[in-house]
Amino acid sequence: MGKLEEIVNKGLLAKIAEMDLKKNHGYYIKIGLVSETIGFLISRNNEPTELTSENFADDERAIVPAQKWRAAERSYLLSLLRKLDGIIPEGYARNMNKSKANLKNPTSLLYGDSSIATDGGSIASRCFYDWSYSYESIGEISTRLTHNTLSEDGTILHSDIGKPESNALYNIPYIKPGVKFIRFVTLENSSIELLRLELLAILGCTRYGARTAILGDNIKNNIIAIGFSKGDKAISSYEIMEKAWASREYNPEKMIESEMLASYGKENILDGDDLKSFIEDTINKGKDKPEMRTMCEAINAKMENDWKEFWK
């Protein structure tokens, strides 16, 4: 018997067909991962020339808010599922759905969604993201690069008398490559199928933060462990980072695994070879269009059958 099957038999996880979407089954799945910058990352708020940061443990640390991770991965999954004809309704437009019928799709079920129509409705999210914090001070891991604004003829932006405009040259702060962020994604009342979709989003998405014309892939995600429980476990990236800042020792992969083993016990987590096997199987399913379509059609059918009153 495989480890995942053991977890299902304990009542900590189920297939979508065996769930009632109207009920709270108490299933909680926590994915612990390390997101490493492999290119330049822009994580900023409303101030275009400053990275988002805050003072922790007597030093200014970079912050990546939960929405920076969530928005990128949701968009990736939506793009992936649009390649399967009929899985995402043709009229679907994120945040602009004129009919709640357009919410009948796996992305809306996993991430939550709403319709702006007069007969609109909303679906609660089953997916919750953690904030991330740098171990190093922001001065150690960031740099500023100077860019120029081009005019229509392809030269640097200048005035009629030939002088560069005030906004012709500007600089942008970046988080440099090689920085490792700890983060967690928690799924509530989710099935094996929804877990697989979330893993495909995490592993497939490689572009995060604000975009510029020169930025390509900038994040590599490495899933360390997945924990299963009835009721959520109180593990957060901030608590782990507090320990790292205090001890001045930072091994993100080992710290995630240690915290999850302590909270879940070895019997209720996927890690090591069990995790590797499940991830490989999930990636293979993601590449198999007929199998992906079958899985997503089952999710859509379940939404149709369990929420009949909602769709009226």
Ranges where pLDDT stays below 50 over 5 or more residues in a row are: none
Cα shape: globular
Discrete helix count:
10
Mean pLDDT: 90
Radius of gyration: 22 Å
Total strand segments: 12
| Secondary structure: helix percent | 25-40%
- Bin the strand percentage: 15-25%
Secondary-structure element sequence? HEEEHHEEEEHEEEHEHHEHHH
Strand order of the largest sheet: 6-10-1-11-12
Q: How can the largest sheet be summarized? A: 5 strands, antiparallel
End-to-end Cα distance, whole Å, is: 43 Å
Q: Look at the helices and sheets and give the structural class.
A: alpha+beta
SSE topology sketch:
Elements: H1 3-9, E1 27-37, E2 53-56, E3 59-64, H2 66-82, H3 106-111, E4 113-114, E5 122-123, E6 127-129, E7 132-137, H4 138-141, E8 142-148, E9 169-175, E10 180-188, H5 192-204, E11 219-230, H6 237-247, H7 252-264, E12 269-270, H8 272-287, H9 289-306, H10 308-311
Antiparallel strand pairs: 1-10, 1-11, 2-3, 3-7, 4-5, 6-10, 8-9, 11-12
